[in-house]
Write a structure and sequence with these properties.
68% helix; 7 helices; single chain
């Protein structure tokens, strides 16, 4: 297993790779290699699963996001905010043991740090809309170990 990270560190690392991939046409392995060389970057298993699942299911994730945008198109969402939304929807859908409220809170915190307060509020609304439409409610499950 790779270095153990806190969930917040893992999400931040995964977000940076998802964002980087949205800015470049390079393959994910090339982006990972560059990140490791340039920043002595490492990911734990959780972060790698989050990144891989996001890209394996990107079209489906983007479709889910787009259905919950209010008067916006996916292409108009700032790339930073979109990367955070993608990460959050992936975690909501593919990591059911993580409480939805934790995922949304972490996404909002990422947006506050890397985007704007308005982006954080918008992201919170989109994710809230998505969660209300999704079933079953996942907040009642135990967090993953």
């Amino acid at each position: 297993m790779k270095n153990k990270m806190t969930r917040r560190e893992a999400r931040t690392a995964a977000f940076s790779l998802i964002y980087e991939k949205s800015m470049r046409d390079d393959g994910l392995e090339d982006i990972l290699g560059f990140a490791r060389e340039a920043r002595e970057f490492s990911l734990d298993d959780y972060a790698m699963r989050l990144v891989n699942l996001t890209f394996e299911n990107l079209d489906e994730i983007d479709g889910k996001i787009e259905r919950h945008l209010s008067n916006w198109k996916l292409s108009r969402i700032p790339k930073v905010t979109l990367a955070i939304m993608r990460l959050a929807v992936c975690e909501i859908d593919y990591f059911p043991k993580i409480p939805v409220s934790v995922t949304i809170n972490e996404a909002v915190e990422l947006a506050k740090e890397y985007a704007t307060e308005d982006d954080a509020s918008y992201l919170n609304g989109v994710l809230g809309s998505y969660v209300k439409a999704a079933s079953p409610v996942k907040d009642q499950k135990e967090p993953e170990a």
